[in-house]
Design a protein that fits this description.
CATH class of the largest domain: Mainly Alpha
Helix content: over 70%
Organism: Microbispora siamensis
Protein name: TetR family transcriptional regulator
Keywords: DNA-binding, Membrane, Transcription, Transcription regulation, Transmembrane, Transmembrane helix
Structural class: mainly alpha
Oligomer: single chain
Radius of gyration: 20 Å
Pfam family, one: TetR_C_14
Number of domains: 2
InterPro entries: Homeodomain-like_sf, HTH-type_TetR-like_transc_reg, HTH_TetR, MftR_C
Largest sheet: none
Length: about 210
């Protein structure tokens, strides 16, 4: 008689495929909601666009919208780029100094983005700069990004992410990235974002000479 099947058996490969398909479907739905929201914001304005209109345009229910984005502000403030940057940081050689590793990771991450992805980032950045509620929500997102970067730097350096040195480094990085983003928005995307980000981080790496 065969023994009962263990509840903690190794997942069958087909189980992993199903999970992967589900994740891809979720990512596609998330992108569709965000793309339709940005289109409607551009056509009729942020304030005039309702969640119901976004859901209808994305062919999902309002309840589905809220599963992906808790608020309308989150459609603009939330992105998948932190995870991409985190992966790029982890991929850097362990002997690179932290700031050099961050500069290389950001340059690689932004340079790998397709033109349509950068267009979407630019649209979100313009909205965040012009709508007060979005500016506040974007600030919250910056704190999340700082926590993410501090964790990545601390892991590479074998330090506590709460160490002042770690926080100061990450704060300095964000301090030069923000003007790079503002310049990109002011120029309407005319200067490539990867170039501006790399120039800003190179300036920091050189010790901020004036």
């Amino acid at each position: 008689m065969s023994s009962p099947q263990r509840a903690d058996r190794t997942p069958h490969p087909s189980d992993r495929v199903v999970t992967s398909l589900r994740e891809r479907k979720k990512a596609k739905t998330r992108r569709t909601i965000q793309e339709e929201a940005l289109r409607l914001f551009a056509e009729q304005g942020y304030e005039a666009t309702t969640i119901e209109q976004i859901a209808e345009a994305a062919e999902v229910s309002p309840s589905t919208f809220f599963r992906y984005f808790p608020t309308k502000e989150d459609v603009v403030a939330r992105g998948d780029y932190d995870q991409i940057i985190l992966e790029m940081i982890k991929a850097q050689p362990p002997d690179l100094p932290p700031l050099t590793a961050l500069r290389t990771a950001f340059r690689t991450a932004f340079a790998s983005m397709r033109a349509e992805e950068l267009d979407k980032v630019l649209a979100r950045a313009k909205l965040s700069a012009s709508v007060p509620a979005l500016r506040a929500r974007t600030l919250d997102g910056l704190f999340d990004t700082i926590d993410m970067l501090a964790g990545a730097v601390a892991e590479r350096a074998g330090r506590d992410p709460r160490d002042l040195a770690v926080r100061a480094l990450v704060g300095a990085v964000m301090g030069v990235l923000l003007p790079a983003m503002f310049t990109w928005v002011e120029r309407g995307g005319a200067t490539p974002l990867p170039d501006l980000v790399d120039e800003a981080l190179g300036y920091l790496e050189a010790g901020l000479p004036i």
